[in-house]
Amino acid sequence: MSACTSRSEATLSALDLELIRVTQQGLPLTEQPFAEAARTLGISEDEVCARLARMQDAGVVRRIALVPNHYKLGYTANGMSVWDVEDAALPALAARIAALPGVSHCYRRPRHLPDWPYNLFAMLHGRTREEVLEQKKEIELLLGDACRQSDILFSTRILKKTGFRLAAKGGAKCSD
C-alpha cells in the first residue's frame, strides 16, 4: 500500500472501487436508480445494493442520500441556526429539531469557548428570511430553558457541495 492509498481503499475489491466511481457523481433520477450502475458494471441491481450496503455497514460509504438544490426549488433564504444547548438535553432535543419540516441538517459540534458557545447546529430553509426566522422561533420554543443563546447565519452564496471523490480510474490518487 502506497502512502497515498487509504487503508479502506486497500481492503475494497476492484469492483467495489469501480462501483464507487460509477455512483459518486450521483444516481440518475429514475424509478430504479441502481439499475444503470448495475448495467455499467455488468452485475445485477441486487448485487449493487448489497455491495453498497456492505460498504455502508463497514463505514466506507457514510450515506446514500438525495441532495436537493434548495435554490432551484425556490428556497433561497437558507440559514444555519446555532444553539448553545445543555449537553445532557442535546440528543433528545436535536432529534426533535431534525424532524421539523424546514430542517435539512441537524448536528452536534464542539464549542470553541469563549468565542463560540454553540454546540447544536440546524440548517433551516425557507423562501424568505421571515419564513426562516419563524422556524427559528419554533425551535426556540421547542428548546425552552435548555437553550442559553442562539444565532442564525444566513447564506450569502451557493457553495459547491460534493463529498469525497476517488481519482479517475488510472489517475493519481494524490500529489506531493
UniProtKB/TrEMBL annotation:
Catalysed reactions, semicolon-separated: siroheme + 2 H(+) = 12,18-didecarboxysiroheme + 2 CO2
Positions of the Siroheme decarboxylase AsnC-like ligand binding domain: 72-160
Domain Siroheme decarboxylase NirL-like HTH: 17-62
Keywords assigned by UniProt, alphabetized: Lyase
Enzyme class: lyase
Record-linked InterPro entries: AsnC_trans_reg2, HTH-Siroheme_Decarb, NirdL-like_HTH, WH_DNA-bd_sf
Superkingdom as given in the UniProt entry: Bacteria
EC number(s) given by UniProt: 4.1.1.111
Pathway: Porphyrin-containing compound metabolism
GO MF term (any one): lyase activity
Family in the record: Belongs to the Ahb/Nir family.
Function field: Involved in heme d1 biosynthesis. Catalyzes the decarboxylation of siroheme into didecarboxysiroheme.
Subunit and interaction comment: Probably forms a complex composed of NirD, NirL, NirG and NirH. All proteins are required for the total conversion of siroheme to didecarboxysiroheme.
Name of the featured protein: siroheme decarboxylase
